[in-house]
């Protein structure tokens, strides 16, 4: 197979949780462009407004990653999938000494437990076919601590660190079944989740990034395509930081 052919997703089906907006939608667009059939999962039907314009032939699913029954129903509608992207996530910015316990639990439940539940539902079917790709969207916040003046969201950082550990552990456990489990660790990209933070701290982020800027739209999708395509069939249990060199400091 020629090199570029290894990035084709023709005949593949991908489900992206949190795929209605932000980085999840960007990744979904990249997978669709590469030839995959795409299903998007979001909590509310109203969230799909932008996605409907960009991927009108996608399957739009309303569901909650915190609810295993809801996820089971979504997967049943999608049918067998080759690729799962766990992009659903939330954050909460507040001094770690003050953040309410219910917010800590909510962030961990959505970002970690939700990814775990979706992954094992997908893996049960992937196991029977001997092949599958699971991509978790982690963060550089899961690889290193952040000064409060850059980001004050300890529960989010904890959840992304846990997601990275889950990625590595499931890669070991499910590798014998032909299931590859990897993660992306994005740096700072302009999204709805980061817009308020970057309005205050973008200059600090630039100063802490060797490339001297935040990420651009489209720069994560290509990395995701690599980890979701046959091009990475000998890669599992890895965390790829797409961060302008931030974690190299």
From TrEMBL:
InterPro entries: NAD(P)-bd_dom_sf, Sc_DH/Rdtase_CS, SDR_fam. Belongs to the short-chain dehydrogenases/reductases (SDR) family. Its EC number is 1.1.1.69. It is an enzyme of class 1 (oxidoreductase). The lineage of its organism: Bacteria, Thermotogati, Deinococcota, Deinococci, Thermales. It comes from the Bacteria. Gene3D superfamilies: NAD(P)-binding Rossmann-like Domain (3.40.50.720). This is Gluconate 5-dehydrogenase. Keywords: Oxidoreductase. PROSITE patterns: ADH_SHORT. GO terms for molecular function: gluconate 5-dehydrogenase activity.
């Amino acid at each position: 197979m020629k090199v570029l052919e290894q990035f084709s997703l023709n005949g593949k089906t991908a489900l992206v949780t949190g795929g209605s907006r932000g980085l999840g939608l960007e990744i979904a667009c990249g997978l669709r462009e590469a030839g995959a059939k795409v299903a998007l999962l979001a909590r509310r039907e109203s969230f799909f407004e932008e996605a409907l314009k960009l991927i009108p032939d996608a399957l739009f699913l309303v569901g909650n990653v915190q609810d295993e029954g809801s996820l089971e129903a979504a997967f049943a509608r999608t049918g067998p999938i080759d690729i799962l992207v766990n992009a659903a996530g939330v954050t909460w910015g507040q001094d770690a000494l003050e953040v309410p316990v219910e917010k800590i639990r909510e962030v961990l439940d959505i970002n970690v437990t939700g990814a775990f539940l979706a992954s094992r539902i997908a893996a049960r079917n992937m196991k029977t076919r001997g092949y599958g790709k699971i991509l978790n969207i982690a963060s550089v916040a899961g690889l290193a601590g952040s000064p409060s003046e850059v980001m004050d969201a300890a529960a989010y950082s904890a959840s992304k660190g846990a997601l990275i550990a889950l990625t590595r552990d499931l890669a070991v456990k499910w590798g014998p079944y032909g299931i590859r489990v990897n993660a992306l660790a994005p740096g700072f990209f302009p999204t709805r989740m980061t817009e308020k933070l970057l309005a205050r701290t973008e200059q600090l982020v630039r100063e802490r990034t060797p490339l001297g800027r935040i990420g651009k739209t489209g720069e994560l999708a290509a990395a995701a395509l690599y980890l979701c395509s046959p091009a990475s069939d000998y890669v599992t249990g890895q965390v790829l930081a797409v961060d302008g060199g931030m974690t190299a400091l």
